[in-house]
Amino acid sequence: MDRRSEIAGNLEAVREQISKAAESAGRSVDEITLIAVTKTFPASDVEILKDLGVSDFGENRDSDAAPKAVAISGTWHFQGQIQSNKLKSITSWANVIHSLDEIRHFEVIEKSAAHALDIFCQVSLDGSEGRGGVSEQKLYELAKEIEKSPTHRLQGLMAVAPLGVDPATAFSKLSAIHKAFMADFPKANKLSAGMSGDFKEAIAHGATHIRIGIQILGSR
Ligand SMILES: *Cc1c(COP(=O)(O)O)cnc(C)c1O
């Protein structure tokens, strides 16, 4: 099978599963943004996705992402662990950052970003920072800094289900954290959660942005 047919088939299957998950949760699919995670895959795959109607692309590494984002127009999402020395470059091509978890990184963004960014705060669901994310205690402080910005927009929260934890349990906890958070930050009503292995559970718990790589593009 050629690459285009392979990707088209996978994409259709994923879209169908998103519709079903939304329907069982009593939600509209229109409130769910599918981000195709193109990290490690070539620009030619991004072109195919674009041709198939995908406009949101997710990346984890500046050096892998920058050339693709420069060559292909779309909404580019950065969801990888942030390294301060790469931030200026990341803000040059990214439209959305999902993985902000430190105030000092936001300060760099404020100083160096050439355009307005949509920002999600990444929350750690297990208290450890192994997979990235700010603790619940430090989350509000970080969010307040972003809200003060005249330029950038706080969108909501992002999280990755901890390894070895049932995703439904993890995302139920995330949903509770997000609901409490919205009492203080009512505009931050977006929730970025769910990857290839757990997006159905994430949709059941209110995810508005799901980040899917291998189920669309195959194994890396
Ligand atoms: C790689 C990655 C994804 C996509 O994961 P898949 O298993 O390929 O669907 C989503 N979110 C983050 C933060 C990632 O690092």
Automatic annotation (TrEMBL):
<dbReference type="InterPro" id="IPR011078">
    <property type="entry name" value="PyrdxlP_homeostasis"/>
</dbReference>
<comment type="similarity">
    <text>Belongs to the pyridoxal phosphate-binding protein YggS/PROSC family.</text>
</comment>
<dbReference type="InterPro" id="IPR029066">
    <property type="entry name" value="PLP-binding_barrel"/>
</dbReference>
<dbReference type="InterPro" id="IPR001608">
    <property type="entry name" value="Ala_racemase_N"/>
</dbReference>
<dbReference type="Pfam" id="PF01168">
    <property type="entry name" value="Ala_racemase_N"/>
</dbReference>
<keyword id="KW-0663">Pyridoxal phosphate</keyword>
<comment type="function">
    <text>Pyridoxal 5'-phosphate (PLP)-binding protein, which is involved in PLP homeostasis.</text>
</comment>
<dbReference type="GO" id="GO:0030170">
    <property type="term" value="F:pyridoxal phosphate binding"/>
</dbReference>
<protein>
    <recommendedName>
        <fullName>Pyridoxal phosphate homeostasis protein</fullName>
    </recommendedName>
</protein>
<feature type="domain" description="Alanine racemase N-terminal">
    <location>
        <begin position="10"/>
        <end position="219"/>
    </location>
</feature>
<feature type="modified residue" description="N6-(pyridoxal phosphate)lysine">
    <location>
        <position position="39"/>
    </location>
</feature>
